[in-house]
């Protein structure tokens, strides 16, 4: 190990010990308690050329989501359904750790986590997106852009995707004499579920919620739990190596339910949704 690597390793251990000692006192670096999330801000309809868009801030982390719709062929094994695809890009301007080029494994993982929560909760009624069975259906392209990164891009990305979906105006097509034609009208998706994620960081036998950047760099393990409005766990993702104390999982699930409901209330109030 080089001298610079040794210094970096020592610094990481010192930071981790500092964060851990604060957690044992019920405190954190930024003044939050271990289970507090950072303030959430949601703005929709910012991207004029997108069918739906949202900008979400969670502390210093900012996420932009845009949605575009096309008409294409359904998957052969799901001929009666439309489809959606999620892509994520970690923009180099957001962090010195993000590099230009095609999505790396972190972007792929972010897209996968968001996709799983939407898909497993059946948030979108895909059958309503089919126009001609086996031939024509709506395809939603959901693009996530990390604009500023101060730790935990999973939770604000999920919020931004759901906000963009909930407020999207999708161009309406109809089938006339076996052909698909644009009507000039628009429709809303009418989401069937609101599955929000809650990200946890674990240091030794303690955990915290919504880690900011400095905390994130000191974690032993990170875990993302997705919860729908019926308090069902729709997804769990352990996104870092390391062992997790088994007795913490039940506690974290209880906190995930509580915090997802807190986010959901903010989401519904901000978007003025009737659920």
How far the N terminus sits from the C terminus, by CA atoms, comes to: 56 Å
Shape: elongated
Q: H/E element string?
A: HEEEEHEEHEEEEHEEH
Main sheet overview: 6 strands, mixed
Query: What is the tally of helical segments?
Result: 5
Return the CATH architecture: 2-Layer Sandwich
Structural class: alpha+beta
**What is the mean predicted local confidence, pLDDT?**
92
**Unreliable stretches covering 5 or more consecutive residues:** 1-8
> Cα-atom Rg, whole angstroms?
20 Å
Overall tally of structural domains = 1
Overview of this protein structure:
The structure is a single chain. This protein has 275 residues and is an alpha+beta fold. The chain has one domain (26-271): Ribosomal Protein S5, domain 2. It is built from 5 helices and 12 strands. Strands 1, 2, 3, 4, 5 and 6 form a 6-stranded mixed beta sheet that branches. Strand 11 and strand 12 (233-238) form a beta hairpin. Helix 2 packs across helix 3. The radius of gyration is 20 Å and the shape is elongated. Residues 1-8 have low confidence and may be disordered.
């Amino acid at each position: 190990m080089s001298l610079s690597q040794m210094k970096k390793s020592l610094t990481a251990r010192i930071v981790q010990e500092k964060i851990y000692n604060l957690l044992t006192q019920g405190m954190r670096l930024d003044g939050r308690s271990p289970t507090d999330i950072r303030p959430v801000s949601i703005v929709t309809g910012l991207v004029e050329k997108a069918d739906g868009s949202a900008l979400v801030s969670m502390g210093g982390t900012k996420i932009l989501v845009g949605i575009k719709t096309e008409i294409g062929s359904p998957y052969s094994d799901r001929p009666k359904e439309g489809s959606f695809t999620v892509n994520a890009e970690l923009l180099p301007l957001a962090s010195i750790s993000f590099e230009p080029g095609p999505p790396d494994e972190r972007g792929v993982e972010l897209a996968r986590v968001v996709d799983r929560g939407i898909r497993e909760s059946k948030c979108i009624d895909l059958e309503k997106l089919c126009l001609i069975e086996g031939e024509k259906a709506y395809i939603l392209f959901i693009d996530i852009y990390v604009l500023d990164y101060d730790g935990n891009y999973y939770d604000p990305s999920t919020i931004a995707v759901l906000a963009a979906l909930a407020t999207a105006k999708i161009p309406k097509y109809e089938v006339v004499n076996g052909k698909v034609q644009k009507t000039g009208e628009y429709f809303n998706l009418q989401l069937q579920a609101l599955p929000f994620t809650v990200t946890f960081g674990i240091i030794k036998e303690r955990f915290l919620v919504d880690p900011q950047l400095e905390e994130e760099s000191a974690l032993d393990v990170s875990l993302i739990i997705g919860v729908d409005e019926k308090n069902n766990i729709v997804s769990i993702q352990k996104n870092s190596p390391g062992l997790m104390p088994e007795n913490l999982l039940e506690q974290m699930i209880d906190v995930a339910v509580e915090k997802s409901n807190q986010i959901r209330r903010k989401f519904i109030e901000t978007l003025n949704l009737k659920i």
